[in-house]
Amino acid sequence: MIIANALICGKKIQLIVIKIMSLGYSNEITSAEVARWYYWRWGIESFFKLLKGAGHDVEKWLQCSAGALLRRLLIASMACVLVWRLQRAEGDDNAAARQLICRLSGRQQKRGRKESAPALLAGLSILLNTLTLLADYIPEELAHLAMVVFNPL
Q: How far is residue 21's CA from residue 53's CA, in Å, rounded to a whole number?
């Protein structure tokens, strides 16, 4: 029964179940546990998809040490958790924050659909950079620098 459920769930789950069954634990695994593993697998897949395609470009990281890679992965993970928390939060303030962050990302959303996690993650990056910029410059300096950029000599 577990093998049949594992085959329905997909290749990775099937391999896990067969390996566990070969170790002699087959009587302890229920089909509900296999379904739970499959549920968590898709959560992990969604996390990796978000890391790969929403501005983090994990596949292009060039860290030379395990410590540097771990730090970057932790920061990216914290950003993903923040986005997921904002995405699930209720209330008018949270809805307004989601709209602002999505607007900053420049990504369009389908009419009537909630803001996507990739759009929120991209917008969060821009928001954090903007807040850092505002902490370093006063508005008059920013206006002057904008004039220099748009009206070069």
A: 36
Query: Within 10 Å of residue 121's Cβ, how many Cβ atoms?
Result: 25
pLDDT exceeds cutoff 90 at 140? yes
Name the pLDDT band for 26 (thresholds 50, 70, 90): low
DSSP states of 59-109 as a string? GG----SHHHHHHHHHHHHHHHHHHHHHHH--SHHHHHHHHHHHHHHT---
In single-letter form, the type of residue at position 106 comes to: G
- Show the tokens assigned to 120: 């929120």
Note the Cα 97 to chain centre separation in Å. 17
Report the C-alpha gap between 56 and 28 in whole angstroms.
Answer: 40
115-131 tens-digit pLDDT: 888 888 888 888 999 99
